Amino acid sequence: MADTEPAAAARTAESSLRDFVSKALFDNEQHVEAVLAKLGLELISTQAELIECFEQAQDALPALARKRLADHILRQDPTMTNMARQARSARDKLRLWVERSGDHFNFRVAVEFGGLEGICTLLRMASIDKDGDGIISPEELKEIAEADNALINDAVTFSTNSGIVSALILTMFVPMELSDPSNDTIRVFNQTAADALAYTAYVCDAFIVLSGFIIVFMSSMMLIWLSFALPTRQIKVTFVRDSAVGLNRMVMVMYLMLWVFLASILFKGLLQSPYVGWAAGLPLIVALIWCFTWWLPNIAKTARMIKAEAEELLSSGEVAIHQSGEVAIHLSTGI
To answer: What is the pTM of this model?
Structure first.
């Protein structure tokens, strides 16, 4: 009985190894037997030994079997499985965005996916598994590491620059003061209108101070988390991806703060002089011209480029899945 149990355990381990190799090689018996024979020469008799010693034993295997086994072993890693699941989820969301956005950029639809920042994050996540086959290959794993580092660095740079710009604007409006209208302003607009102009300028200043505080606070927290609080690269990347909507809102707050900043300059100029004060509106006029001639067209252009890349990624994934299916049929039938 003592001799039977080890023998049964050995047969179970051998069967487990055969099943593992068979799944990796799409049940092609001829290839399975050849690989098992090679593994036997390397004294590998269990699935656990194969996974643990694959790097040392892979040179003894045929090239195709080595590639298939490497991919199959990667699929056993929970981290790789989670990454493949995230890539598949991002791919599904990208496909939904492409279908709903139509031929032109739809801002309302884009906001539902976190704006352009959120869509770019989805595109990066979907690019983890470029061919869409649900397998994170060693080549894709290397590209993931490079893309993750770039994503973290981009988030740190964005947070730093946003915080610096907002802090500089913040110093221009602190301490806050309620500007008194000049006598010329009161005479031209009357006392009530002049007071309303002063209060409006004060509200604009308050909005700028509040917006600057929000951006500086969010930027500081992002830098603390990405630089010190989060211990591993994977946690940092997950945090940045999950923060896409928050970063998009921070960008919107910054946009609003800059436009209100220009409006505040105009209101304060009119408070000083109803005649020359209109010149303070020139920055706002120039900004509006720039907005309609460069900023908005470039947003649409960027959206089209992102959509084109998303469509290319989705189509390449469908082609890869179709080809991998044909390969699986070929390997399993030998035809």
So the answer is: 0.70
